[in-house]
Amino acid sequence: MIDRKHAIFTQVNNVVGTLNVLFAIREFSPNCHLIKLGTMGEYGTPNIDIEEGYIAIEHNGRKDVVPFPKQPGSFYHLSKVHDSHNIMFACKIWGIRATDLNQGVVYGTMTDETAFDEALINRFDYDDVFGTVLNRFCVQAAIGQPLTVYGKGGQTRGFLDIRDTVRCIEIACHNPAAKGECRVYNQFTEQFSVLDLARIVESAANKLGMAVEIDHIPDPRVEAEQHYYNAKHSKLIDLGLQPHHLSDSLLDSLMSIAIKYRDRVDASLMLPQVNWREPKNDRRLQMSMPTRSAAADSRADHSPSTEVKAKKG
């Protein structure tokens, strides 16, 4: 959503890349099982329950089962919809087998394997483009910034622990689709609104002795700020997924990681720099809200810029 260049790169990278994989499967390994990591963002936020990939309908006295209507909310999510359609079509004409995992928002950094050594810790994105909301809130709390909620904060999505992401892919591998089948699983374990998460992080930070504020800012995206959201997600659980829900202990772990590495945080990346209503956005380093420690240093040193002090490491 940054500009034309980024939109074209995203669509070509995803759509053409997936097409290349499909043709390679057909030519070299037609019996393999394709697992695509998709996104719940393909569905959008319809005013009806979201089914897992397909919906039974009755129209003018006739019945059918059709792909669930897609209302993607960005050019990225549109590319994933195109991928899903291409995969479904390839299954139909070539008889390949595929599983489309529509994944929710992932949180957490640790799996059993990465816990063996600190060098294996996963990335922790928190910026305004690639950062996920729970990561951003934890980082903002750690550096003393208000938690920035877009608009009213009623935007609701499906979430899952990174350990469940890995397990879902494993389950799909061990339970391949049938020949010619394109099946769809909704891969998430819980639903939260943005404001729900802000309040959860606020409470966790208070327990750690940190005072946290919640700041509602204008929504830079074009989306419903309050809406109905109820997505089905039973198929992976039926196949053996045992979800890790967002517990106090897990949130404490996320907060601890953010606090431990807060000296590496670039505070200039917190506020949104991409306005979805504009076809071109110039992303530059911004004058962010200062951290509490940086603001105190500024007053003591009479420094004209708190941004430099916030960008340690």
Describe the structure in your own words.
The chain has a single domain (4-310), classed as UDP-galactose 4-epimerase, domain 1 (Alpha-Beta Complex), CATH 3.90.25.10. It is 36% helix and 17% strand. It contains nine helices and ten strands. A hairpin with a 2-residue loop joins strand 2 (54-59) and strand 3 (62-67). Helix 1 packs parallel to helix 2 (75-94), helix 3 (133-143) runs parallel beside helix 5 (194-207) and helix 3 packs across helix 7. The chain starts with a helix and ends with a helix. The model is unreliable at 293-313 (pLDDT under 50).
Question: Which SSEs are present, and which pair or pack?
Answer:
Blueprint: H1 4-28, E1 33-39, E2 54-59, E3 62-67, H2 75-94, E4 97-103, E5 105-107, H3 133-143, E6 147-150, E7 156-161, H4 162-174, E8 182-187, E9 190-193, H5 194-207, E10 214-217, H6 235-238, H7 248-260, H8 292-301, H9 307-310
Parallel strand pairs: 1-4, 4-8, 5-7, 6-10
Antiparallel strand pairs: 2-3, 7-9
Helix pairs in contact: 1-2, 3-5, 3-7
Whole-number mean pLDDT: 91
**CATH homolog superfamily:** UDP-galactose 4-epimerase, domain 1
| CATH topology type | UDP-galactose 4-epimerase, domain 1
Indicate the proportion of strand residues.
Answer: 15-25%
Global Rg: 21 Å
- The chain-level structural class is alpha/beta
Uncertain residue segments: 293-313
Summarize the structure.
The chain has a single domain, classed as Alpha-Beta Complex (UDP-galactose 4-epimerase, domain 1), CATH 3.90.25. Helices cover 36% and strands 17% of the residues. By secondary structure, the protein is α/β, with parallel strands linked by helices.
